[in-house]
Specification:
With 282 residues, this protein is an alpha+beta fold. It has helices at residues 92-97, 107-115, 124-142, 148-169, 172-175, 184-195, 203-209, 214-225, 229-246, 251-257, 263-274, 278-281, and strands spanning 7-9, 17-24, 32-34, 38-45, 48-52, 55-58, 64-67, 73-77, 83-90, 119-120, 180-181. The longest helix is centred in the middle third of the chain and has 22 residues, at 148-169.
């Protein structure tokens, strides 16, 4: 059974997209969590470290962090400075509807996932442009003038177009080794798990495949990612099953394709995680 005190869902998005401009003078303690929507985090001020799928990012002001749906992540906030950021939640259906053939607005999230690197750091000129884009978007969202909602929709699309362009041509943060920390062996294991969820993945077999002792693997995995090997695999299987169910795959088939050998085990874990049955989830 999953320990929801360590991994859980945070936030529900009922709109196409949603913008938060937040400033905290006292650091919150947040657990590992995930979302069913994509998320952009733009740091304005403060000191914060984000762990996204086992990679630790040390954010600087005007860094952009791209967190794709179902990615398990957690911020650690330094209370010595006020933590100010803009967070944009992006509905997946809205992203799909606003995309053009061959030019998906959420391609930047796919690129970040494929690279295994989710941080975008731009130069001073682009930071100013992002600041102006955020200000225009916030003004449109507050406005009651004619066409304000359509203007906000358009401005959010423009912001995402900029992120897509920048992530394809920018590797500045990836080249700055002090901007992130990664354990290459654990990163390799995480990628293997994601690619083989439908298979049996016992800890002993993983330890043997990656030439590690069972104890070291369990200890290091927990230290790097914040959760146990079993919790991580179980959560990823549930999220995979959810994706398949939403795509129209029959529930039992989705459970099987996500790696659950027993339907009753899947059903209990699914209801404990999503607080609804698979049919209601669809």
């Amino acid at each position: 059974m999953l320990d929801r005190s360590e991994v859980g869902k945070r936030g529900y998005l009922n709109e196409d997209f949603r913008l938060f401009h937040l400033k905290d003078s006292r650091a919150q303690k947040l657990d590992y969590h995930y979302h069913e929507f994509d998320k952009l985090i733009l740091l304005l001020n403060g000191r914060v470290t984000y762990v996204v799928e086992g990679v630790t990012y040390f954010l600087r002001p005007w860094d952009i962090l791209l967190v794709q749906h179902n990615m398990i992540h957690k911020p650690t906030i330094d209370p010595s400075a006020p933590y100010e950021r803009v967070v944009i939640w992006l509905g997946r259906q809205w992203l799909e509807e606003r995309s053009d053939p061959g030019e998906a607005l959420d391609a930047c999230f796919d690129t970040a996932r494929e690279r295994g690197f989710h941080l975008l750091r731009t130069d001073a000129e682009r930071r100013l442009e992002y600041m102006q884009a955020i200000q225009r978007l916030e003004e449109a969202l507050r406005s009651a003038e004619f066409g304000a909602a359509r203007m906000a929709d358009t401005l959010c699309q423009q912001l995402l177009i900029g992120v897509n362009r920048d992530i394809l041509r920018s590797r500045t943060a990836a080249e700055a080794r002090d901007s992130y920390r990664v354990d290459p062996k654990i990163e390799e294991i995480l990628r293997y798990i994601t690619a083989h969820l439908e298979e049996e993945l016992p800890v002993d077999a993983l330890a043997k495949r990656f030439y590690l002792s069972r104890y070291y693997l369990m200890h290091r995995f927990k230290a790097v990612t914040g959760y146990t090997v079993h919790q991580y695999i179980s959560q990823k299987r549930l999220l995979r099953a959810g994706e398949l169910i939403r795509a129209g795959v029959p529930v039992m088939k989705a459970a099987e394709q996500a790696g659950f050998s027993e339907y009753s085990t899947f059903l209990r874990a699914f209801q404990n995680t999503f607080h609804m049955s698979p049919r209601e989830f669809r």
